[in-house]
From TrEMBL:
The lineage of its organism: Bacteria, Bacillati, Actinomycetota, Actinomycetes, Streptosporangiales. Keywords: Transferase. One of its GO terms (molecular function) is transferase activity. This is 4'-phosphopantetheinyl transferase. Residues 128-226 form the 4'-phosphopantetheinyl transferase domain. It is an enzyme of class 2 (transferase). It comes from Nocardiopsis terrae. Its EC number is 2.7.8.-. Belongs to the P-Pant transferase superfamily. Gsp/Sfp/HetI/AcpT family.
């Protein structure tokens, strides 16, 4: 086996929002505490707190350091692209993907939260993106599908039985957004410009029409029950060996 065909290890941790508690606030830095207190809803505060706490605890363990030695730089690939093109950007308050720096430099993470679930994904040396979406009764599902699905995706989607459409829409969305989050572009990368396979078939990137084309990507759905859709994208051409830590394991992680 050549070195490049060795599998790449990636891990995902899930937490239920009920695992949030005040003790975790000690894990946030000053900027994070300020952001935490700006959320109006307790549910938003809890999701944010869990994402950052899980990230610090897991990275501290991997890097063999104390959680407070783990720092993040927020990087928005969309704004970086705009400022490279001389079209402004980069003047806003720091925002974007948290990239581990300090003692945990070299690791990559992605955080997602929706409804009662928080996901943290981690790998070493390759960018990755995780997304979780609650399947909701969106009033204008057809309108939303019209401007988020690529033409080929929309054709498949609109031929599905009515009862399957909401689940399939969020299945598409999670796959596409996981890819966009992996590149650090976020939604500004354009959901219609990223093409993926239909949700009832194996997850795969089909085309990338926008900037920051990742070339190769490994894509997989993650199971979070019938009310949610979730996906993980890892920007590598290698096989990925994924370890998923279920929500039952989160309380022990968060007690560390
Ligand atoms: C940021 C974004 C990817 C989040 O997607 P979402 O489905 O609403 O939320 P998720 O829970 O899946 O993801 C949120 C997490 O994504 C991460 N994130 C933020 N920006 C990101 C980016 N550009 N790329 C990858 N990840 C990003 C953060 O960790 C955030 O969690 P946190 O705030 O608790 O740390 C999406 O809302 C987006 O791209 N928004 C664009 C916002 C915008 O227009 N900004 C203006 C300047 S570009
Ligand atoms: Zn930006």
């Amino acid at each position: 086996m050549t070195l490049s065909s060795a599998p790449l290890e990636s891990s995902v941790w899930w937490a239920h929002t009920s695992a949030a508690n005040e003790r975790l606030l000690r894990l946030l830095d000053g900027g994070e505490l300020a952001r935490h207190s700006r959320f109006r809803l307790q549910a938003d505060r809890d999701r944010y707190l869990l994402g950052r706490s899980m990230a610090r605890l897991v990275l501290a363990e991997r890097a063999g350091c104390a959680p407070e030695k783990v720092t993040f730089e927020l990087r928005c690939a969309s704004c970086e692209e705009k400022s490279r093109a001389g079209a402004g950007g980069g003047d806003d308050a720091p925002h974007g993907k948290p990239v581990p720096t300090g003692a945990a430099g070299g690791w990559e993470i992605s955080v997602s939260h929706s409804g009662e679930w928080v996901a943290l994904a981690l790998a070493r040396g390759v960018a990755l993106g995780v997304d979780v979406e609650r399947v909701s009764d969106t009033r204008d599902l057809a309108g939303l599908a019209g401007y988020t699905l690529a033409d080929t995706e929309h054709e498949v989607w609109s031929a599905l039985p009515e009862a399957d459409r909401a689940g399939a829409f969020f299945g598409y969305w999670a796959r596409k957004e996981a890819l966009l989050k992996a590149t650090g572009l976020g939604l500004s990368g354009g959901l219609r410009r990223v093409g993926v396979t239909p949700p009832h078939t194996r997850a795969r990137l089909l085309f990338w029409e926008g900037g920051a084309d990742p070339g190769a990507a490994w894509l997989s759905d993650l199971d979070r029950g019938p009310e949610y859709r979730s996906a993980l994208a890892v920007l590598t051409d290698r096989r990925v060996e994924l370890t998923v830590h279920p929500p039952e394991a989160a309380p022990a992680l968060l007690r560390r």
